[in-house]
Amino acid sequence: MKKYLSLVIALVCLLSLCACGGSKTEEKAQPSAAPVVTAEPAAEVSAPTEEPAQPTEAPVVEQKGPSAYEQARALEGESVDALIAAVGEPLSREDYAPSCLGDGEDGIWHYDGFDVYTYREGENESVYAVMEG
Questions:
Q1: CA atoms lying within 13 Å on the CB side of residue 46
Q2: For 64, left (φ over 0), alpha (ψ -120 to 50), or beta?
Q3: Which one of 9, 14, 23, 63 is most buried, counting C-beta atoms within 10 A?
């Protein structure tokens, strides 16, 4: 029973740490050009010869796809093969240790900016959790 209580507490802590992530993209409006007015000699008075420039629309900010971290988070519960296909090989892997989740082993894969926690049992290995760090 203690094993399951510890698992539930660890999962709640993990989820509370992951809930703070996110990113926002801001768009900046470009100032519109001022109307061009040509100056005539003082003896002659005339109206501007060009029409005022129309306000321009802000450029469309091209949004990139999800970050490697977001892609990895979306693969929690999936095979590590899907993770490698989506974000590539990890920078490093720590030694595996006996798992409290079952008869398998836990591993930690380090990527640039985040870590992936895996669960391996037999020849199957899956993404258990992904945390920024």
A1: 10
A2: beta
A3: 14
Q: How far is it, in rounded angstroms, from Cα 65 to Cα 86?
A: 12
Tens of pLDDT along 78-100?
A: 999 999 999 999 999 998 999 99
Q: Give the length of the chain.
A: 133
pLDDT digits (tens, 9 = 90+) for 36-64: 555 555 556 566 666 666 666 766 656 57
122 within 8 A of 105, measured Cβ to Cβ: no
**DSSP 8-class letter at 42:** T
Nearest to residue 124, comparing CAs of 99, 88, 92? Answer: 99
Tokens at 104, concatenated = 């398998």
Cα–Cα distance for residue pair 74/114, rounded to 1 Å: 14
Strand 92-93 and strand 124-132: pairing?
Answer: unpaired
Nearest CA to 122 among 104, 97, 98?
104
